[in-house]
UniProtKB/TrEMBL annotation:
PANTHER family: SURFEIT LOCUS PROTEIN, SURFEIT LOCUS PROTEIN 1
Subcellular localization: Cell membrane; Membrane
Transmembrane regions: 240-261
Membrane keyword on record: yes
Keywords recorded for this protein, A-Z: Cell membrane, Membrane, Transmembrane, Transmembrane helix
Family: Belongs to the SURF1 family.
GO cellular component: plasma membrane
PROSITE patterns: SURF1
Membrane topology, from the record: Multi-pass membrane protein
A Pfam family: SURF1
Record's protein name: SURF1-like protein
KW Ribosomal protein (keyword) present: no
């Protein structure tokens, strides 16, 4: 009579050459699935960037609209206006100019030049503020500077100016600047207390000015890029779903190997228990 088979543990089964070969095969399959998932994720990112570029090109081609047409004073700022081109006319108030601390441009940390503009025309011929207490104030980010040193080149142009730029939403109120003339946030809620109102709920990132302000080469503020919604336009959901599918398939391949090893180990134990029961049940045992 054959001797009963000794039960085998999970690791005893897993060390068998045949099972190790299966593991290598399943790991290769999992690696392929993981790589395909990364490829789909890259595709999702590329499609999102392409969509953002197309949207920006369409907005550029459409040209600027009056600030008041897009965003009446004291109205809420809709997210789709971020990066939208707009134009406005008015007079700067150099006495209210502030520098916004800790702002980066091209990897360098410096300051944004923030100047209040007393609006004379926002594209509505005054209709947008007809029911308000007076002409509105628009915060204008005129550019970026590396240091907060006073310079005549940072002074805004005198008289009425016509500006074009990109709209951006107001930021949350900060803790205030570290010194007079500095601030840590472009918050219209905080600025209205300093500059007065009424005020627009967003601000303008300057693109062009007529008359022109001094260029960065002449000591003036450096121009900023078109603002975008923080976090981008989002990944393409279809490609993201495909990436998740591939990663699930890769994980399933590894789990399948674990299940096969467990089943084989459990089958050996069942056979051992069956043989023991048969011996114990023999007549005369």
């Amino acid at each position: 009579m054959p001797e009963p088979t000794a039960p085998r543990s999970f690791w005893a089964v897993a060390r068998q050459p045949r099972v190790v070969g299966l593991l290598v095969l399943f790991l290769l399959a999992a690696a392929v699935c993981a790589r395909l998932g990364v490829w789909q994720l890259d595709r999702a990112q590329q499609r999102a960037e392409l969509s953002a570029q197309q949207e920006a090109a369409e907005l550029e081609a459409a040209g600027p609209e009056g600030v008041g047409v897009l965003l009446p004073p004291q109205s809420s700022f809709p997210g789709e206006l971020v990066g939208r081109q707009a134009w406005v006319e008015g007079e700067y108030d150099p006495a209210g100019q502030l520098l916004v601390e800790d702002r980066a441009l091209d990897g360098r940390v410096g300051y944004l030049v923030l100047t209040p503009l007393h609006v004379t025309d926002d594209g509505t011929q005054g209709a947008s503020w007809a029911d308000l207490s007076g002409a509105p104030v628009l915060p204008v980010v005129r550019g970026w500077v590396a240091t907060p040193e006073e310079s005549a080149a940072l002074d805004p142009p005198d008289g009425v100016v016509r500006l074009t730029g990109y709209l951006q939403a107001s930021e949350a109120a900060g803790q205030g600047g570290s010194a007079p003339g500095l601030t840590d946030a472009i918050s219209t809620g905080a600025l209205v207390n300093e500059w007065g109102g009424p005020m627009y709920s967003g601000y303008l990132v300057l693109l062009t000015s007529d008359p022109e302000q001094p260029s960065a080469a002449d000591g003036g503020p450096a121009q900023l890029p078109r603002p975008t919604i923080e976090g981008g336009t989002g990944l393409n959901l279809q490609n993201l779903f495909y990436a998740l599918q591939w990663w699930v398939f890769g994980g399933f391949a590894v789990l399948l190997w674990v299940r096969l090893v467990r089943d084989e180990a459990a089958g050996g134990k069942r056979r051992t228990r069956g043989e023991d029961a048969g011996i114990a049940g023999l007549p005369g045992a």
